């Protein structure tokens, strides 16, 4: 099984990906780790480095790839059999981001961390107004074009139902 999960920051992509990968013992691919250099979220990798990481990680028989970067997810969609779009309301994403704090706070001073959270909130709030592949519009285009099994999840209850009711995602189920 090869699964791609996309959505806005704070939508629950990483949590769901960990759940699914753990249940089926599949490798987990974080698109953030492909896009950004190690050590924080301030230095983008080169295109060549990203392409190499994507190429190598796609070789596994099964995987779960998650992230907001539609331009990277697009490469995984060529091999994926399942595409999950977490399209939760902005209010939920924002609350989760505020609760979590800035993802890079381990690498920054308090003032840098506070600025990082503000920048992340501003960027994530733009999900509905941008037009690139990291936006609602871009994710919808990827979703519409995908020809495999696809799930458009718009609320937290549907995430729970997915995990409870889908045989492929039950604990202990092999893919």
UniProtKB/TrEMBL annotation:
<dbReference type="InterPro" id="IPR027417">
    <property type="entry name" value="P-loop_NTPase"/>
</dbReference>
<dbReference type="InterPro" id="IPR052922">
    <property type="entry name" value="Cytidylate_Kinase-2"/>
</dbReference>
<protein>
    <recommendedName>
        <fullName>Adenylate kinase</fullName>
    </recommendedName>
</protein>
